[in-house]
């Protein structure tokens, strides 16, 4: 059965002999070599993520802030994202970035 890439999704092809290919595959039905090639499908639509953070202000009070982020991957960089970070790039990258940004905003606003 040929893999189908749904609308709003992109696929990166992993080849057992050549590794991750640099070509990003768009929507539609694509033919792959069974056992040799495997599609890794990414959702490229904008998705929301809520990040709650408890941080301290200048006057030493705890501040509860929730940041809502709309994010999506850069389609041309999907092979690089997959090889360097993995399929769960949002779980690895977003929490650390948002925590640091929110802390700096709270410190500058107070």
Automatic annotation (TrEMBL):
<dbReference type="InterPro" id="IPR001107">
    <property type="entry name" value="Band_7"/>
</dbReference>
<keyword id="KW-0999">Mitochondrion inner membrane</keyword>
<protein>
    <recommendedName>
        <fullName>Prohibitin</fullName>
    </recommendedName>
</protein>
<comment type="similarity">
    <text>Belongs to the prohibitin family.</text>
</comment>
<dbReference type="GO" id="GO:0007005">
    <property type="term" value="P:mitochondrion organization"/>
</dbReference>
<keyword id="KW-0472">Membrane</keyword>
<dbReference type="Pfam" id="PF01145">
    <property type="entry name" value="Band_7"/>
</dbReference>
<dbReference type="GO" id="GO:0071897">
    <property type="term" value="P:DNA biosynthetic process"/>
</dbReference>
<feature type="domain" description="Band 7">
    <location>
        <begin position="1"/>
        <end position="110"/>
    </location>
</feature>
<keyword id="KW-0237">DNA synthesis</keyword>
<dbReference type="GO" id="GO:0005743">
    <property type="term" value="C:mitochondrial inner membrane"/>
</dbReference>
<comment type="function">
    <text>In the plasma membrane, cooperates with CD86 to mediate CD86-signaling in B lymphocytes that regulates the level of IgG1 produced through the activation of distal signaling intermediates. Upon CD40 engagement, required to activate NF-kappa-B signaling pathway via phospholipase C and protein kinase C activation.</text>
</comment>
<dbReference type="InterPro" id="IPR000163">
    <property type="entry name" value="Prohibitin"/>
</dbReference>
<keyword id="KW-0496">Mitochondrion</keyword>
């Amino acid at each position: 059965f040929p893999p189908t890439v749904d609308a709003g999704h992109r696929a990166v092809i992993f080849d057992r002999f050549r590794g991750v290919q640099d070509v990003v595959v768009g929507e539609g039905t694509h033919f792959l070599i069974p056992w040799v090639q495997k599609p890794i499908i990414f959702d490229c639509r904008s998705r929301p993520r809520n990040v709650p953070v408890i941080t301290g202000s200048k006057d030493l009070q705890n501040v509860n802030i929730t940041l809502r982020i709309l994010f999506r991957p850069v389609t041309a960089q999907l092979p690089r994202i997959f090889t360097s970070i993995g399929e769960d790039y949002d779980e690895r990258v977003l929490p650390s970035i948002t925590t640091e940004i929110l802390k700096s905003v709270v410190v500058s606003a107070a």
